[in-house]
Design a protein that fits this description.
It is a single chain. This protein is mainly beta. It has one helix at 132-135; strands at residues 8-15, 18-24, 31-36, 42-48, 53-60, 64-70, 77-78, 95-101, 109-114, 117-121, 129-130, 151-157, 165-170, 173-177, 185-186, 207-212, 220-224, 227-232, 237-240, 253-255, 262-264, 281-284, 292-294, 311-313, 321-324, 330-333, 341-344, 350-358. The chain has one domain: YVTN repeat-like/Quinoprotein amine dehydrogenase (Methylamine Dehydrogenase, Chain H), CATH 2.130.10.10. It has a four-stranded antiparallel sheet, with no helix packed on it. A four-stranded antiparallel sheet has the order 4-5-6-7, with no helix packed on it.
Length: 359
């Protein structure tokens, strides 16, 4: 298998039947570097340029939940151990939902699992330690699963401060630590959900995806089951920024490289989790104060489903944005969303897409 040229952009697409890797020197013409983990669900995969390593959450009913890594994106190595709960807990890791390197902690890797828990590795994913202060949080007895299970699906290390991190758990809420995981507090003020018509409990919300702002890490965007929100650090609460969107429901969300920019793909609702008659991505460049509908090059009519990891950005200038659908298409733009095209189609149902430079 040919090596991926240095200086390329790489796109990793996790599907229900394996991982697909694509690469391009100009972000116009894309080539396949292969399919890996044939037949196995890959819930999330990403390449970390600073580590020059890729990681993939590969889940198997036979081999278990694993994190695999690659330096080349063409040869993969399974970690010696997957994240696992101690027998005394009575829990067993069913899936790894998310893997994330910590920019402020070189060599450190985190994994979010189902049932909800956060694991940390300091040896490239060969061994894992549970951050048990989160699973021992006082609210833990009341944690309830969402439609996709009780999963810790989003991990947001602070790129400047290794002690700070935010995680999202469905259908529980958002949690934050400022002491390296020793203690955690809920971050749900300002949230609302139709299943809580009057009360505002501490937990029981359903964050679908979170992303930090491209310039200010204290600003966090959230696609919730019932709206898109922005975290206001000064007010210590979430602010609803759904106005201007055709629907408050959706799964995927990605932050742009510039401050105040973010992307979402609204879906009809939890009763019909598809796009609203055509494929449309919405972009804000004002931290959610206004939204722009982006459709040039996207299919119409279309009733497509984009899952929580189905939207990613490559951080380059101009920005490349990528959308993977459950119908097996991968759309991309290399101008921030003004015009879209296809990386690939006819793939198995896609669960995740990430993109980055390959230095």
């Amino acid at each position: 298998m040919a090596a991926i040229p240095k200086g390329s952009t790489v796109v990793l697409v996790g599907t229900r039947k394996g991982l697909y890797v694509f690469h391009s020197r100009d972000r116009k013409r894309w080539r396949s570097a292969g399919r890996f983990f044939d037949g196995l669900p890959v819930h999330h995969a990403l390449y970390v340029p600073d580590e020059r390593t890729a990681y993939a959450a590969v889940n198997s009913t036979h081999w278990g939940a694993t994190v695999q890594r690659s330096r080349t994106l063409t040869k993969w190595v399974r970690g010696k151990e997957g994240p696992a709960y101690a027998k005394a807990t009575g829990w067993s890791v069913a899936k790894v939902w998310n893997v994330r390197a910590s920019p402020a902690e070189p060599g450190v890797l985190y994994a979010g699992v189902e049932p909800a828990g956060l694991f940390r590795s300091e040896d490239d994913g060969d061994s894992w330690e549970l951050i048990d202060a989160l699973t021992k949080h006082p609210t833990r007895p009341k944690w309830s699963p969402g439609n996709g299970g009780l999963c810790l699906h989003t991990i947001l290390p602070d790129p400047k401060n290794p002690k700070r991190m935010i995680v999202g758990i469905s259908a529980v809420g958002v949690f934050a630590t400022e002491d390296g995981g020793g203690t955690w507090r809920t971050l749900n003020r300002g949230m609302r959900a139709e299943w809580f018509p009057k009360e505002k409990p501490e937990i029981g919300y359903c964050p679908h995806k979170l992303a930090r702002d491209g310039e200010d890490p204290s600003v966090v965007y959230q696609q919730h089951h019932g709206g898109v929100f922005r975290w206001d650090d000064r007010a210590d609460r979430w602010v609803d920024i759904s106005r201007g969107l055709p629907s408050k429901f959706g799964f995927a969300l990605a932050a742009g490289a510039d401050g105040g920019s973010a992307y979402v793909v609204p879906l009809r609702g939890d009763f019909d989790r598809t796009t609203l008659g055509e494929m449309a991505v919405y972009r804000t460049r004002s931290a959610g104060r206004s939204w722009q509908r982006l459709t040039a090059g996207l299919p119409k009519p279309a009733h497509l489903t984009i899952l929580r990891e189905g939207l990613g950005a490559d951080g380059q200038d101009p920005l490349g944005v990528y959308v993977a659908t459950e119908q097996g298409q991968v759309f991309f733009t290399r101008d921030g969303g003004d015009r879209w095209d296809l990386v690939a189609e006819n793939l198995p149902p896609a669960m995740s897409v990430t993109a980055s430079p390959f230095p």
